[in-house]
Amino acid sequence: MAGERRGTITSPLSRGVNFGVIAAFVAFTAFPFFWMVITTFKQTLDLMNPANNPFLFNQPPTLTHLRMLFQETAYAQWLWNTAWVGGIVVVITLLLAVPAGYSLARLSGSSGEQLGIGIFLTYLVPPTILFIPLSRVVTFLGLTDSLWSLVVVYPSFTIPFCSWLLMGFFKVIPPDIEEAAMIDGLSRFGAFVRVVLPISVAGILTTIIFTFTLVTQEFVYALTFISSSAKFTVSVGVPTFLVRGDVYFWGSMMAACFIASFPIAILYNLFVDRFIAGFTGGAVK
Length: 285
What we know:
single chain; two-stranded antiparallel sheet; mainly alpha; about 0% strand; globular
């Protein structure tokens, strides 16, 4: 009875604590989106007046910042450039990282794991060190001021990490499943395509989301290899055109950040379960 009474007392308290923690976390993570939206539609005088409540519209909302973003900058073109580069880099990363991760996972002994860790360590090399030799490569290939330069450079840091990530995920899949498929008549490649890949959807989705997010946020290489404003990505075009000296166009900048980040946030939420499963599977093994 004492245990049941103690359980009835602590259970609502436990639920309350859980609700409070979750509510605080949701408020913390949602606040940047709220701030971007309210800043996008605020008038500049309302935004800059320190006497106004920053969380409310003290003057009527306006579309001035959105008009400036789309009519006075090439923001739509920057969005297209980012999506185009990100899509191609995702395809290249999958084509190389999936077979590499599978091969590392199936290597006998500890050599596969040590080789995978060695590949992962190349991901940790700072871009500020690599962009000088990579600029020589881009110049040699004649890709200066071309989006193809980013397509060549970005896989140099997406493939190592994704290979290591997928290696850990493929290790979770028992080799007995492949051997059973080969006994039934499939080749090793057929067993990989028809048995292993369908089970590995979580790891592949993790690779897609991580690669596209990394490309969207990258700044150093995009600033170094692209000089034409029409070929900028979002990460370079927005600070270049919306920060003029000490003048910050906060409304347009927040609108640009919200439009670029909202689809990715939706994508994360749609596949959050598979994304976490892929990341934890790759981290543990």
